[in-house]
Design brief:
Layout (H helix, E strand, L loop, with lengths): L1 H7 L3 E3 L12 H12 L6 E3 L17 E5 L2 H11 L3 H11 L5 H5 L2 H6 L25 H4 L11 H14 E6 L3 H11 L1 H4 L2 H5 L22 H8 L3 H26 L1
Parallel strand pairs: 1-2, 3-4
């Protein structure tokens, strides 16, 4: 977004690392965030990590919403080991003033799942307020702040998330489908994403050739463990494939238009 901002002449604003993830905000807190965005001097690309909260106090949409999804199980594994990376640990120390204990940093994901550790439990109906539960479902970031969104892997929460995607989100992309995502973003939101494909694959300097976000501390997790997890992520996969299907429908519509 920073590179696209220089290319397409728009400002970027990003919630700081120290700002808590917006997992559950009451109505007043959501209004505060909406007013903050409305008060920005420019029309920026605003990046934050939290649940859908795009309404003004009057109930009007104030922004063009996009999001990126990924395979639900791969996402959980990635988050487990990201929390234990040196760079994240240092950032957390700067915010909280303390490190986790040694057991936390040496915990193995496969053992965590097989021993039913609280951090690696994925029980139907698990509430997000439980410890570690807030990042176990990506549908939570689309469903919103209603109590219906709280239980893990439930049809009602997924139905609400789908409804919000169709109504409020211009594009829900996937980095597992990079070319499709960038193509759709370029055509649906050209003000911000014009030239994104060219910029992403620019020789030598393009982000496609950069390795900054690779977590070398994440070991391989066996397919057996992933299969055990998938049995409890049925609704999360329902939502995941719904979003992927929507993305491809947008992509095919663009290509059909271009051919004619």
């Amino acid at each position: 977004m920073v590179r696209l901002g220089r290319k397409n002449d728009f400002q970027n604003e990003r919630s700081p690392f120290s700002k808590p993830t917006g997992i559950y905000w009451n109505v007043e807190r959501q209004k505060e965030e909406a007013m903050h965005i409305l008060d920005l001097q420019e029309e920026p690309a605003f990046v934050y990590h939290g649940r859908r909260k795009s309404l003004t106090p009057g109930g009007l949409l104030i922004s063009t919403l996009i999001y990126q999804i990924r395979d639900p199980v791969e996402r959980v594994i990635s988050w487990f080991y990201y929390r234990r990376t040196p760079w994240n640990s240092v950032k957390m120390y700067e915010v909280t003033g303390e490190f986790q204990n040694r057991t936390f940093y040496t915990k193995n994901f496969e053992e965590c799942v097989l021993t039913h550790d609280v951090e690696c439990r994925y029980d139907h109906g698990l509430m997000f307020k439980d410890e570690f539960a807030d990042h176990k479902r990506q549908s939570l970031f689309f469903c919103g702040h209603s109590p219906i969104c709280e239980p893990f892997n439930t049809p009602a929460a997924i139905a609400r998330a789908k409804q919000n995607v169709e109504r409020d989100f211009s594009v829900v992309g996937s980095w597992e489908d990079t070319n499709v995502t960038l193509t759709v973003l370029e055509h649906y939101i050209p003000r911000f994403f014009k030239g994104s494909m060219e910029l992403y694959y620019e020789p030598d300097t393009g982000l496609a050739f950069q390795k900054e976000n690779i977590n070398h501390w994440k070991p391989r997790v066996s397919e057996r463990i992933k299969q055990i997890m998938r049995a409890n992520f049925t609704q999360e996969y329902e939502f995941y494939y719904f979003c992927k299907q929507r993305l491809y429908r947008q992509y095919f519509a663009i290509n059909k238009h271009l051919h004619f």
